[in-house]
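Data deposition worksheet. Section B asks for the primary sequence of the deposited chain exactly as it was used as input, without tags or linkers unless they were present during the calculation. Section C holds the resulting structure in token form. Section D is free text for depositor observations; keep each observation to a single sentence. Incomplete worksheets are returned to the depositor.
Section A, Depositor: J.P.
Section B:
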Amino acid sequence: MLKINEVDVFYGNIHALKNVSLEINEGEIVTLIGANGAGKSTLLKTISGLLKPKNGEITFEDGSIAGKVAQAIVKKGISHVPEGRRIFAGMSVEENLELGAYLRKDKQGIREDFEKIYRLFPRLLERKKQQAGTLSGGEQQMLAMGRALMARPRLLLLDEPSMGLAPLLVKTIFEIIREINKTGTTILLVEQNANMALSIADRAYVIETGKIVAAGTAEELNQSDQIRSAYLGG
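Section C:
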């Protein structure tokens, strides 16, 4: 579904991604784990068109998307839930969700998707007229995910969805991620909570200082002593 081949990305003179290659098959949850500053968010931003690669190729469903503008990439079926949620604080929950569907013209489909989002996130239905900036951190994360789903993505990019959340809410968010995947959405998950990420992923990649240093099934990485000592606390 998504193939990244030998991609290099620079921030000025800083070589942020170095010859990165990975692929995601339709229907999978693939997780990317690594320390802070390893290049995880940079990779998601490059896929979604917020950063342009200097070299390499990114193919989504057999068409090149490397260097395309973000709007065109959303239209092709990729939605990005950024680190820090980036909701529109002064707008209502409902208005934030409407913005997620801004490229769509199918009014009936949009109405149906509102209902789906509210079923998936009942808390958002209770707060639909509330200003998004007044929501709790967990509710804001749900809103950011709901907004991305309103674009009807085939591939959902999730950047640190558990960041700053209480353990109970983390569990809820990961259950919802699994539920989204079951409905047919492929997921690329960037997550510092490597234990949780590997518990729901099919496959995983490990990134260090801009390079992919390990890859395999989630189970294989979970059982690797090297990965356990570096990322899993044991």
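Section D:
Strands lie at 2-11, 14-24, 29-33, 55-60, 63-64, 78-81, 155-159, 186-190, 203-208, 211-217.
The chain has a mean pLDDT of 90.
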